User: What shape does this take?
Amino acid sequence: MPKQEELLTTITQACQDKKARDIEVLDLRGKSSLTNYFVLASGTSTTQVAAIADEVEEKLQNLGLDPLHREGYSQARWIVLDYDTVIVHIFHREEREYYALERLWSPKEKKEEESHESN
Assistant: This one.
């Protein structure tokens, strides 16, 4: 089993290899009992979203890891790959903007700053 840092690096590199946009790692330790990290990435087409997911799976299979669960391949608008301590979310650009997981999981201070900016 790879160390957490190697796992995150492998995932982000796989996303970069397929030209994913807006790659972000959210540290959820102490915030969620689901997982330690979310890795978020975007594609500009369903073909690219599926290709990014395939690349992540292939790179992690090379490390001996298979996802515990995968969801969303049939539509390829939001694919989720669950690797227990890391859950990978690969979005079509429009779904990424709509669901905005970054805002849901961002620190409280950031949310407060945004509310002050809008006043």
Observations:
- Residues 46-61 form the longest helix (16 residues).
- The chain has a mean pLDDT of 87.
